[in-house]
Write a structure and sequence with these properties.
The chain is an alpha+beta fold and 149 residues long. The chain is 16% helix and 32% strand.
Length: 149
């Protein structure tokens, strides 16, 4: 009986030791574990007027306007910030299911349907013919899929 008690105590001590070792391992820096990259710094390349004020980021050579926080319907007007030309490429980050369609009007009109499935935001890049160097402003509207505002 004494041997059985000793083996139970040994097993408990071994389990406790293993838990302490594994708990300490969570503070180690494993070679395959990397911290996520920091978010890109916000920029101010375009002036935005309207109800929403999306953050602006450079994603390579594309100016990305983050509309992932808006839903329902609304609109904004974009103009180049003082001393800046239009960016060569322009994209919008949207959240699936937040609204049905994104309508962009500049030198031309583009209606971008938003897929309602998915969890992660998606980036929608505008075709180059939507705006040019002489475009005064770009109007961006979002709303239900049946009709854009």
């Amino acid at each position: 009986m004494h041997a059985r008690l000793a083996s139970g105590t040994t097993a408990r001590a071994a389990a406790l030791g293993a838990l302490l070792i594994l708990g300490g391992c969570s503070h180690l820096h494993w070679p395959w574990h990397r911290a996520p990259p920091p978010p890109p710094p916000p920029v101010h390349a375009l002036d935005v007027s309207g109800a929403a004020s999306p953050a602006q980021y450079w994603k390579r050579n594309t100016l990305l306007l983050d509309l992932s926080g808006v839903s329902g319907s609304g609109s904004i007007v974009l103009t180049p910030a003082a001393g800046n030309p239009w960016p060569v490429r322009l994209a919008f980050r949207v959240r699936p299911g937040a609204f049905g369609v994104l309508e962009v009007r500049g030198a031309a009109r583009e209606v971008l349907p938003i897929d309602s499935t998915g969890v992660r935001p998606v980036d929608l890049e505008l075709p180059p013919e939507i705006y040019g160097a002489s475009t005064a402003q770009i109007t961006v509207a979002w709303g239900p899929a049946a009709a854009a505002p």
